[in-house]
DNA sequence: TGACTATGACTGACTAGTCAGTCATAAATG
DNA sequence: CATTTATGACTGACTAGTCAGTCATAGTCA
């Protein structure tokens, strides 16, 4: 029983790091193909979970979409629930890494935040990742493990990072409202709303997220005079 | 087949309007009890759906919680799906009505919005209604009927109303950023984030929604000097 | 008013179908 | 050939929806 879980974890580890000993050696064919299959399953599972939610998603459908037999899924994941949890980790982590890479802090705080917003726009809003965020909001209460992970890895870091930027902005005189540092959520809120809007209401009323975020930054920093 | 649906609708109508002819006449015991049962089912269903999501909710559990046999549910609702849809309507409509009642427009735009935010805080944020909003975000994509209804009755009205207020604020010189009227979402966003935050992260990091909304209004209107 | 009948709200055991997870077998690999 | 990996038919638990039967209440009549 526990053996299988261990094996799944090992397979996952192999995906990113083919055995500590051989270091940079190329992965064996087997490991490569196993990793490819795992990725296919993760991709298929993401599509299905996003489209139907956790409970209504059938493993048969995931298997079919991934071009794999159902049993194969159980070679990589303990069960449906932990597949969902690992899926979230697998997809979220690279995004966080990407978005955490801030540009040189030589520019103005506004430019820093604007760059971040641009990346967020490109990497999340209106993409499958955005749908995944909506899915986390949807399933979070039923998956404390997911909600905890998301809070720890994404939300708390995002809030902390944004707070640091706001404080820098205040110190430099770019931001005039000191209280803003107490609620970084206010700065992030429109971006989150854009994510949800695209998932739910885009077909009723399309939203120009980029333009909206610019207006929001104008509100925080004051309107741009010259570039 | 269609008869049953009609009957359910009739029972529902009877809840609020006991037969057009007799006007103010008291409802018969039967109709009263039927209405009470329907309400009990709606309340039970809301709890269960919020806790488990649509797909994972068992009608047996709803019945048990409502103190009713499973068959009774089908006297009031066509099936699980339309029960969910009617539930959303039943719960949302009164809230919209309540929140639509604006105070006399003699006060400043800031006061108008602040009053609205206060009501929203009391009626939605941190309540079962707030959880329901999260549920709509969660299930919306799988229930176009629900998403459409919510967009039509809540979102589009809210956006339009807020836009009117913003334009008034601009005209009166209370709001300086004219572009804000193009994205009323920006004004509403923190309130929505507060709703979601309470559902998902309150136990990780409690959020003083009221204070946050005040800070946000300070950002839009400039900080308060005197009252 | 009291007795008798008609109504339809309510019940819950039951059916038919679904789907997560298993495992005996087969294929691939080295 | 031995071992690892993959398959998909199968099982058993679970649940949406049904329906024949019950019974409290409304209606009728003497």
TrEMBL record, chains A, B:
Q: Does the keyword Transcription regulation apply?
A: yes
SUPFAM superfamilies documented for this protein: Homeodomain-like, Tetracyclin repressor-like, C-terminal domain
Q: Which Pfam families match?
A: TetR_C_11, TetR_N
- Which keywords, in A-to-Z order, does the entry hold? DNA-binding, Transcription, Transcription regulation
Signal peptide limits: none
- Give the annotated DNA-binding region, as residue ranges: 58-77
Domain HTH tetR-type intervals:
35-95
Keyword Protein biosynthesis listed: no
Disordered, as annotated region? 1-31
Name used for this protein in its record? TetR/AcrR family transcriptional regulator
- What is the taxonomic lineage of the source species? Bacteria, Pseudomonadati, Pseudomonadota, Alphaproteobacteria, Hyphomicrobiales
